[in-house]
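Final report, results section. Input specification for complex C-07:
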Amino acid sequence: MEHSKHIWRAALILLFLGTGFVGVRHFLIPKSFGQAGHYRYDSIFEYMAQEPNHGSRESCRKCHEEKFAETVKGRHAPVQCEVCHAPVSAHAKDDKKIADMPTNPNHKLCALCHQKLDSRPKGFPQVDLRRHLAGGGRTVAATIPDAACFECHSAHEPSPLRGER
Amino acid sequence: MEETKKTGGVTRREALGTSAKGLAGAMFVAGFGKELDVAGWLFGKDAVSKPAYDPTKHMYTFLFDISKCIGCGSCVRACERENNVPPHHFRTWIERYRVFGEDRVLVDSPNGGHDGFEPDPSGEVARKAFFVPKICNHCEFTPCVQLCPVGASYRTPDGVVLVDVKRCIGCGYCVQACPYGSRFLNPDGHVASKCTMCYHRITKGMRPTCVEMCPTGARRWGDLKKPGDPVAEILATRETHVLKPELLTKPHCFYLGMYKEVR
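Structure output:
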């Protein structure tokens, strides 16, 4: 076999390339790729590892039982604390306070839900604030103080006026 | 003859030095091996922790009730705070539809409804008007997953369309492909970003933030594989609609009280 060395050379080159391909592929393709589809399955565990910021009402209740009790009996019962305040993660960590919880006593906060709009459901309580402040009818209040709503209503239990309780 | 201690061509000094180096190396690997994840790098061992959660046991879906949405934007703000969504980008948003006269439809979504909606300054009264919450439809046959060139977009076994941010190259094909406009390129990292159905919450037994924070119950979310699930019950017994059904993407985001004007 005069030319056998050519065959051996070709075989060696192929073996080298094949090993290289398998080796490079091993390092480039993540281990979990293809485990459940054409994607890296471990990615879903990375999403799972994210920490929630919102704790919902039950996490607020741990320290603020009295506010909880006040809110759940009123018409704002379906409104979560964190809607008007801020996520609990900015305020408490491991049931310990880390920063003040922001409050926003501004009529613009109330207007997000209660500003009169033709596109809101008809039965939902809405006010035209300038008319509401002037006592309804055709008159219109000249200015709206920042804390306009909170002079009469409590944010946690808005239905009875402050003086009527 | 001072080389009397020489054995096998190695002096005692050399032998001690070599073994000290070897010991130091072994100690280094033992001490920092876990941090460096040498084994993980060599053998592809994953460093992520895997919670006890079986995605094949669930199939999630959204259900929105248009007649209950008041357009307050609580969902948009909550999503932003929960998932650190950059300003003026939206994983969920609210559209206001107002229909005048024969067929004039005005649709607006100022800042995605993040700051609520203002009354129409013209005072024109709409014939009908309503709010439509929008979000990723988590489609079963979704174009955004089909065309991703690097396999970074995928749908989990429990029906959530996600982006593998470590693989995403930020080409933006999926952003263009989504018929519902629910994806964007995150300026932070320049990778595709979208609603994750709060995957970090739902896998811990919580509800998605937008559903949890909705004050009127307009947003609902359920598990089709859970017996007696209220959302699954509604889907099984009542009339519901999806967006752009003609595209056959099979959205997992259903609407109650749908209007024909909604696109």
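The first helix of chain A runs from residue 4 to 28. Chain A has three domains: 4-48, 53-102, 104-160. This concludes the modelling results for the funded period.
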